[in-house]
Design goal:
671 residues, alpha/beta, Rossmann fold, 6-stranded parallel sheet, 27 helices, 20 strands
Amino acid sequence: MDLNALRTANPDHWSKATAIRALTLDAVAAANSGHSGMPMGMADVATVLFEKHLKFDAANPLWPDRDRFILSAGHGSMLIYSLLHLVGDTQFPIEELKNFRQMSARTAGHPENFLADAVEVTTGPLGQGIANSVGFAMAEEIQRATYGAKVVDHHTYVIAGDGCLMEGVSQEAITLAGRHKLSKLIVMWDNNNITIDGPVTLSDHTDQVARFKAAQWHTIEIDGHNPEEIDAALTEARKSDMPTMIACKTHIALGHAAQDTSKGHGALTDPQQLTAAKEAYGWKYGAFEIPKDVKSAWEEIGKRGVAERQAWEERFDKMPRAKRETFNRALALDAPKKLSATIKAFKKQMSEAAPKLATRASSEKVLEVLNPIMPETVGGSADLTGSNNTKTGDLGVFDTDNRAGRYIYWGIREHGMASAMNGMALHGGVRPYGGTFMCFTDYARPAMRLAALSKLPSVFVMTHDSIGLGEDGPTHQPVEHLAISRATPNTYVFRPADTVETAEAWEIALSLKETPSVLSLTRQGLPTVRTEHKNTNMVEKGAYVLADADTKRQVILIASGSEVSTAMAARDLLQAEGIGTRVVSMPCMELFAAQDDAYRKRVLPGGAVRVGVEAGVRMGWDQWLLGERGKFGKAGFVGMDRFGASAPAEELFEKFGITAEGVAQAARDLL
Amino acid sequence: MDLNALRTANPDHWSKATAIRALTLDAVAAANSGHSGMPMGMADVATVLFEKHLKFDAANPLWPDRDRFILSAGHGSMLIYSLLHLVGDTQFPIEELKNFRQMSARTAGHPENFLADAVEVTTGPLGQGIANSVGFAMAEEIQRATYGAKVVDHHTYVIAGDGCLMEGVSQEAITLAGRHKLSKLIVMWDNNNITIDGPVTLSDHTDQVARFKAAQWHTIEIDGHNPEEIDAALTEARKSDMPTMIACKTHIALGHAAQDTSKGHGALTDPQQLTAAKEAYGWKYGAFEIPKDVKSAWEEIGKRGVAERQAWEERFDKMPRAKRETFNRALALDAPKKLSATIKAFKKQMSEAAPKLATRASSEKVLEVLNPIMPETVGGSADLTGSNNTKTGDLGVFDTDNRAGRYIYWGIREHGMASAMNGMALHGGVRPYGGTFMCFTDYARPAMRLAALSKLPSVFVMTHDSIGLGEDGPTHQPVEHLAISRATPNTYVFRPADTVETAEAWEIALSLKETPSVLSLTRQGLPTVRTEHKNTNMVEKGAYVLADADTKRQVILIASGSEVSTAMAARDLLQAEGIGTRVVSMPCMELFAAQDDAYRKRVLPGGAVRVGVEAGVRMGWDQWLLGERGKFGKAGFVGMDRFGASAPAEELFEKFGITAEGVAQAARDLL
């Protein structure tokens, strides 16, 4: 590249973009780690985006109607940190950049949404940002349809690299965006032809432009170092009635000795090469030094949106009060006041009616009463609507001609669904829930982890949660998936035993602000075990005594979900033999762990043998079976220690010994 | 559809294809569950494939040079079971079909490779079969280049549905196939425009033909009910020098009242509609009844390959003996005789040299000695070659001009890599291993589970296995991933402490025949703890006493991987205080659990407090900390109970208390 030509063609632009490159070089050198090349390659695109298109106000990074900027290629985090420093975001003084990748800095190795207001998304695991962006754009459409374009009217801009586009989840994302004509979604592809292992052609010959066209996107190809072309492309993209992909041909690590090489992708820390690059830029300043005129120019950019924001605030204030309140309540993730009373009334009714229902059907019943009072919920399923029971009558289907629809047919895209749900939650104003078979948490797993890390209250509705799924066989029967979700920090796993517990689990899930929930629900019918109404939300305690021993307590059976009624039947068998047996229902281990010692000891006192019952692996159970054991000192577990099989469900429970008699025998064996 | 026109146009074809449809209807009706529509829609394509193109011999389903047939749309399992019954596979008598989806039947709800010889792949989780097929085609290319086209020359045929193509992993698969010009891979897309939730257009508007073209595939569009078009397309596909996708326009549930509807996707069990469909076919036979002439015609098809197989056997016998032996040894998954001696010599050398190495680097050293003596290994990495240390000097890079290359640059496709590795292992003759960051087991997870379920000895090389990854931060730091892999049945998780244990882990992993391995390896350098050479493979025991208490044993520290040296340092601190401390290295919990009670009690006797040390979550540890505890009855754990952070590694271990002093203090607290 002829840097001189670039500089002289547009010196103002050049100095602004070069500030990003210089800060990137300096921060990576200081940290002695990081990724220099990507921010250096995409500095021109980002500069034009921020200078001329992105609607934002640096002093108010949480302004609800701001455009969203997502750095899907999260390893290039210095791009976003440089930009935020330059525009005057007070959370990013120069000290933060000097502390790049150090303990407690906001400038983490990859952008983390919970460290800074202006960082919209936690990215780094490739493909996630572009998949999140679909949720952002959908949330914007839904909110715009709900509140009107006067208060909701913004774009979602994404910078994605080759890595993002090679990940499979990007295909799920772009086909969803194409299907729904998410025209306010604009992806800028950093087409630099470099991956860590070498040139992209080492592993890929895909015609990305043709691929996006096949997914019904508008596409534009530009020189990613030409500010006029960048500006024109963004203008064109904003006018399109389709989502737009701008293929930006760039040079990774522009101007550095490592330009256009995979070395340039990583940390460029050689001091001489750093100096040489700055010289080539015509940048005469010291480390972390930005000349006043360049900083002022950038700060002006940071204030570009002030008037627009103020005008928005005036328009917002003119909205009817009820609408404003709902808008703000949803944004703050406050549950509606009616939630608690609604759940209580529902529980009372169910305790009396005592239906035999699969908990997936219980969940649908709960949603039928909750969705009408929580207009912020957005439901969906990955092509298993009838099986996941996620659709209720009032939601309407989100589509190109019904943007207010609150139900999304995600197609066979579990991963894309979960990532987009995260995007919706990050966008704010909506509360996403989505369903698939429990076994396919495997597909959604990268996004479910990010929901937990990013502190998003997404609700994953996972049905067919054991061998109770039956004939579809072991490919579809979860065995280890409860353990997987429970192993993940900041995740609540609810496995309700009946309709009442399902209602309690939903009440908690829809009240959480920073924790995702996994609802583990059955395919098969279960009797109501909570036949006595209680106002208290018992699931909130994690575990509780469902039925106590009639005589001296010798056995405690601890069970979750479908196995609670099995444990109750085992209790009948044991008590008939004079063996006093307590049944503890344990719908949420995480919440039980959070109770105080005294409560936990009341529920699980010593002096009795313990048997855990759950149609899954034992992992995670020992803390309750062994950790607080008393004088008997014996414990057992009835569950699965292998994959399941294809057969009718009842036969499978019989085969694997997860029956009342199997549980009773496990207890007898310990006595 | 005018069934009459179809029937009269080609009555011979019609009766053969209708036999599939009738058997499908009968079996699903008998099971009262399953998926009728897909086999009914694709019966014509499958009939022409088996009759005119697929190289196979029904009596010898394991003939190494057979064509592979993969039903990626695994829910349509009755297609494959019908075909196998019709061609005379002795594992599929009519009784098996009558037992569809019942306990212990070969005719499981979804095809399971371990239940029947002719079922190549376990499918059902959508997108997996098409992703596996890339591995099949690569393995064929590698074997052909190695042994010559006289003994290896076959195709891989895949039937994939809309669900397969919507899953992200399919994009990773087709771009890999296109990149490598896997011309012997032929995908037949069941283009029926129906998913469970409704028409495909409900969730997708992708132009699939354009998408495959963008990925450098040859594409053909046909009427999937016209046998001449099907035949011509398959002929054309076999001649192409690119992978070929044949878009087969079909009618799901052809001829049934539910034709072309999403109801037709599921179980069609209404007896009257069943009868009406058979009438419409002109099929006058009872349930599970196949007229003699039709069955004979199919059995002739089953024998089509006999002469070809015999000729192949003659050619195979003419290969040099050494080549034959290697071919057969690799196919049988027997480790070479030299393996054990090679590992022993390497261990001796390492115990003496006692290098300080990251275990990822140890792993590279091991591979440098193993790859030359195991020509069946095929290595690779998902764009982290230099970080995963998976490439050794002698492998050569697999490419269009080097089909014998044994190293694959998978690109940023963890899921596609793992699925293709499964395909390679299923194809046979090669032993795949592949690397990524441990944290991205999340992306590969659906395929890793299927490796375990399908009994495949794939080796997943997962480096950067804790907060020791450092500055990249929590998005890249595994915390729950050891627990996730350990929760999965039939999976060995190895977390070696140094170069010697790494060699032992590789020896086991490359000797396994039916179990996948996860190698959990560090980014950071570790001292050699096994400085005293032992011929015995200690990792094989799962856990063992690395250093015993010098004085009366009061403490047992149990650690894995990078924390073993931390535990050794803690032991020094404690023993200096007169507290006798044993250190147990536990590189593989699954193997330790498989030892007899006596050994386990020798390693973990009572009478001492226990502290587990691992830079991950506690889940999975309690069985060793609490399960066999003795009279002190106290145990603790030093590890992670939250996500990590972005900072230099040493500072993170300090911050989270995973240090010698932290471990020593945990022990002191218990005493």
